[in-house]
Amino acid sequence: MKTRAKLQKMKENKEKITMITAYDYPSAKLSQESGVDTILVGDSLGMVVLGYDSTIPVTMEDMIHHGKAVKRGADDTFVVVDMPFMSYHISKEETLKNAQRLFQKTGAQALKIEGAGEVLNTIEQLTHAGIPVVGHLGLTPQTVNVIGGYRIQGKNKKDAEELIENAKKVEEAGAMALVLECVPEPLARLITEHVSIPTIGIGAGKFCDGQVLVFHDILKYGVDRLPKFVKPYGNANDWFQSSITQYVNEVKDEVFPSKENVYEMDEEEIPSLYG
Ligand code: KIV
Ligand code: NA
Question: A single GO CC term, please (predicted)?
Answer without folding.
Answer: cytoplasm
